[in-house]
Amino acid sequence: MAEQQINVAVLGGGSFGTALASIAADNGARVRQWMRDETLVSQINNEHLNGRYLPHYLMNPAVHASSDIQAVLADAELVLIAIPSKAFRSVVQAAKAWLTPNQILVSTTKGIEQEGFLLMSQVLEQETGFSHIGVIAGPNLASEIADKQLTATVIASADPLTRTRVQQALGCRYFRVYASDDRHGVELGGALKIYTPLPQAWRLR
After folding, report:
1. Residues 122-161, buried b or exposed e (16+ Cβ, 10 A)?
2. Which GO terms describe its cellular component (predicted)?
3. pLDDT value at position 194?
4. What is the pLDDT of residue 47?
5. What residues does 8 pair with on adjacent strands?
6. Given this model, what pLDDT does residue 91 score?
7. Rounded Cα–Cα distance for residues 143 and 145 (Å)
8. What is the per-residue pLDDT across 26-45, written as a single tens digit (0 to 9) for each?
9. Among 117, 120, 152, 204, which has the highest number of CB atoms less than 10 A from its own CB?
10. DSSP of 7-36, one letter per residue?
C-alpha cells in the first residue's frame, strides 16, 4: 500500500497500461488513463473493463479514463507512458504543453526509435528536458499481472525520487518493483529482447 496518495496519469489504453493503472488504483493512487478511443473510454468508466486488450480483467473501478489528455495530466505527480514505440514521440509531443518539470515521467515501452536510434527515455529527455525520468522494464506480461501471478519489474532511473514514487505506486504482493540506477542498461535490455532473437542453442526447452 502506498504511504501517501499519489496522482497517477497513464498515457495509453493497451494491456500493460491498463494493468498498471489498476494496480496503482489498488494501492490508493488517484488514477486517470488517457486513450483516443471513446468507446474504450466509456467501457472502462462504465464497466471497468478493457474489452479490447484485457477482456477478462476487471479493473479497479476508481480508474477514470478520458480522451482529454490535458485533463488526465492535470495535477499528476507520476506519468506512466505506455504507448507503442512508433507513436511514442508523437504522444509525448501532444502532451508536452501540459507537462511540468516537477512531474515524474516513466516509459513502460520496449523499443528503439529508428530515426536516431534513441531509447524511449531518451525521447522523453529530448522532448521535455526534465530531470525526473525513468523506465520500467522486466520479464512480465500484462496478462500475468492481470491474473495476479507473481511477477517482477525494475524501475530504472538516476533520480531517487523517481525510483521511490514508482515503487510506492506500483509495488504490491504479486507485482514486485525493484530499483536500479542503470536506466540505459535496463532499457536497452528490454529493447534487445524485441529486436534480437535468441540463438537456437539458448532457447529454453
Report:
1. bbbbebbebebbbbbbbebebeebbeeeebebbbbbebee
2. cytosol
3. 45
4. 97
5. 31, 78
6. 98
7. 5
8. 999 999 999 999 999 999 99
9. 120
10. EEEEE--SHHHHHHHHHHHHTT-EEEEE-S
CA–CA separation, 59 and 17 (whole Å): 12
Whether 151 contacts 145, CB under 8 Å? yes
Domain covering 7-202 in this structure, CATH number: 3.40.50.720
Question: Which H or E element spans position 101?
Answer: none
Residues of the chain with pLDDT under 70: 1-4, 191-205
What stretches of the chain show up as alpha helix (H) in DSSP?
Answer: 15-26, 38-47, 69-73, 85-95, 120-128, 142-146, 160-170, 183-195
| C-alpha R_g of the chain | 16
Is 193 designated active site? yes
d(CA 31, CA 58): 15
What cell numbers appear for 100 in the block? Answer: 511540468
63: cell is 480508474
CA distances from 138 to 28, 46, 76, 155, 179 (A): 23, 31, 24, 9, 11
| Domains of the chain, residue spans | 7-202
Annotated catalytic residue, options 86, 96, 148, 193: 193
Q: How far apart are CA 145 and CA 186, in angstroms?
A: 20
CA–CA dist 107, 124 (Å, integer): 8
Strands 49-50 and 54-58: antiparallel
Helix (H, G, I), strand (E, B) or coil at 99: coil
Q: Please say whether the beta carbons of 40 and 65 come within 8 A.
A: yes
Q: Which residue has the cell 529482447?
A: 193
